[in-house]
Amino acid sequence: MEEIILPREFMRRILSHGRSAYPDEACGILAGEENVVKVMYEATNLESSPVSYMLDPGEQFRIMKEIRDRGMRMVAIYHSHPLAPPYPSQKDINLVFYHDAAYIIAGLLDRADPQVKAFEIIDGQVREIGIKELD
Ligand SMILES: [Zn+2]
Q: Which domains does the chain show, CATH number per domain?
């Protein structure tokens, strides 16, 4: 995946989810077709932590089923970094399970100027990919 196509509405919602979970990390799933995001699911961070997240497995299972039922695929998993730059932590890298999904991180360290970045993480290798916002 070279870039993700993300409607601005979802960009706003990722940031507002991150702000509402602050100082804990927020997480969720973005689904759609190919690299185009069409649906966003806010999820529960089981760890309630400012430095890590864990999707609730039962909730994730229900979301994944709904995505399949809609004929879509999981395009990305997003989470926020309330206290760190928007770059995958070693734990984020270790926990990567889906190689065909992108990982989006919303960096809220500078809350007045949040930064959202997307990455492909394969076999421990992190590569930034583009985010193209759609109106
Ligand atoms: Zn992280």
A: 3-134 (3.40.140.10)
